[in-house]
Amino acid sequence: MKQFFKTTICAIGIFSIYMSAPSFAAKTETYNQLNLFADVFERIRANYVKDVDDEELIEAAINGMLTSLDPHSTYLNPKRYEGMRVQTSGEFGGLGIEVTMDRGVILVVSPMDDTPAFRAGIKAGDYITRIDGEQINGLTLNEAVEKMRGKVGTDIDVTIVRKGESDVIEITLTRAIIEVQSVRHRIEDEVGYIRVSSFTEKTGPGLREAITEIKEELGDNMQGIVLDLRNNPGGLLDQAVAVSSAFLDRGEIVSTRTRNDRNIQRYNSQRGDSIDGKSLVVLINGGSASASEIVAGALQDHERAVVVGTQSFGKGSVQTVMPLSTNGAMSLTTAYYFTPSGNSIQNEGITPDVVVEQLRLDDTEEVRTRRSEASLRGSLANPNADDEEEGDEEEIDLNLGSEEGEEADSEEESEEEEEQRLTTAQDDYQLNFALNLIRGMSIARSN
User: Fold this and answer.
1) If pLDDT is split at 50, 70 and 90, which confidence band does 163 have?
2) What is the pLDDT of residues 177-233, one digit of tens each?
3) Could you report the per-residue pLDDT of 276-333, keeping only the tens digit for each?
4) 291 SS3 class
């Protein structure tokens, strides 16, 4: 009740300010809408078929207000806010998937390397329609995420619908502490391979360390670097800037612009090229989103790298986390990202310089339909496009009411997918192409 009266008093205060404003009629209508909210709130409290918690009602109203704006604006209660802060530090509990809400179910943006979801064979573009037998329909993204979290070591059953497959897939996962090693590296002959799986607080330092170790091992024989950003769902902006800076001598990396371009923030390279101009190839795909698109776009616009793979996800909006008085926070979309050439990533993504589909060398499997930011319900239009419609949708049968799908089949498929994902250059077609491209560029430079 205290919260309710605070809301009412706040509404009265707002109204008193509006009374002195020039557009009195418009402000009066806003006050009437606030009064309508208070009326609905009171009627629910008084007449709903069972008792409801005032705090839960207010939180649901805030959630509804934010999620109606776009797929990425959301309310973080104190528990989720703390969980988000832990996650960006690079260690947290869960299944290891980056998700968003699409058509009332959970869309997997990307599984994280070496996590329960990754090892079970969950793929970018998969839909999670049930959690422990309960349908996702009707839940908010926050509620669904909370159901997927739990005590480390406990099991959770998820139902997966995958594009191009008629049967649903039932998978049992065991919750674990997710320790994200966001940067891994190895040597492929005389080419350095660096895999960046997400952008956490440890990514920038991890990249520098990887480059140093590759240079020490290869010395003057190093032909170049392959930077793998495939299925990287993004993360911290400052770490995207740090990664880009590692390969640029100078210049703008990214800019952010609020509505009507009233506030433009530019981020520039602060360091010299750490690989001394050696050849660089960046790998991306439909699971590369947000911060990974910033890096690919910056290196592409400065002609510092050849971008190889498939069209990226297209998440070009900035979310600002704003702490609230309740110890929670709200993540609000406040700006757009723009590459150095002035292009917006939103709904468009990064187009590779060389399009290479991911095909196994021994099996030209059918390429799945691309899932992207533009296909999400309520996605924001690209600010560079005047006539583009928001939230283009693609039809897909989600089998929401189906109970079919045998667990034995899904377990066999999960083992096969795990084997495919633990790839080397010999069975990763895109990586093999990138390595050969580096070698060809090195020969061209030496001649």
Assistant:
1) confident
2) 877 678 999 999 999 999 999 898 899 999 999 999 999 999 999 999 999 999 998
3) 999 999 999 999 999 999 999 999 999 999 999 999 999 999 888 899 988 889 999 9
4) helix
Q: What are the structural domain ranges in the chain? A: 2-65, 80-178, 180-394+414-446
- Within 8 A by CB and 6+ apart from 186, the residues are 193
Structure tokens at 20: 């002195």
Query: Which one is catalytic: 202, 301, 344, 442?
Result: 301
Q: What is the pLDDT of residues 397-435, one digit of tens each?
A: 443 333 333 222 222 333 333 344 444 566 789 999 999
Asked, colleague to colleague, whether 80-178 and 180-394+414-446 share their fold, the answer is no
Given 255, 315, 410, 414, the catalytic residue: 315
Q: Residue 122, class by beta-carbon neighbours within 10 Å (0-12 exposed, 13-18 middle, 19+ buried)?
A: buried
Q: Of residues 392 and 285, which shows the higher confidence score?
A: 285
Terminal-residue alpha carbon distance, the chain: 78
With residue 430 as reference, give the H or E element that holds it. helix 429-446
The span from the CA of 226 to the CA of 389, in Å, is: 36
The overall longest dimension of the chain from CA atoms, in Å, is 82
Q: Is residue 315 among the annotated active site residues? A: yes
| CATH, domain range 80-178 | 2.30.42.10
Catalytic residue among 110, 290, 344, 442: 290
CATH assignment of 180-394+414-446?
3.90.226.10
| Phi, psi for 326 (deg, rounded to 5) | -85, 10
Buried b (16+ CB within 10 A) or exposed e, 320-356: eeeeeeeebbbbbbbbbbbbbeebbbbbbbbebeeeb
CA 386/CA 320 separation, integer angstroms: 25
DSSP 181-240: --EEEEEETTEEEEEE--B-TTHHHHHHHHHHHHHHHHGGG--EEEEE-TT---B-HHHH
* Cα gap 360→283, rounded to integer Å: 16
Does an H or E element contain 319, and which? strand 317-323
Judge whether 140 and 67 are in contact, CB under 8 Å. Answer: yes
What are the percentages of helix, strand and coil residues in the chain, rounded to 5?
35, 25, 40
398 or 152, which is more confident: 152
Q: Which of 162, 124, 132 is nearest to 148 (CA)?
A: 132
Type of residue numbered 387: D
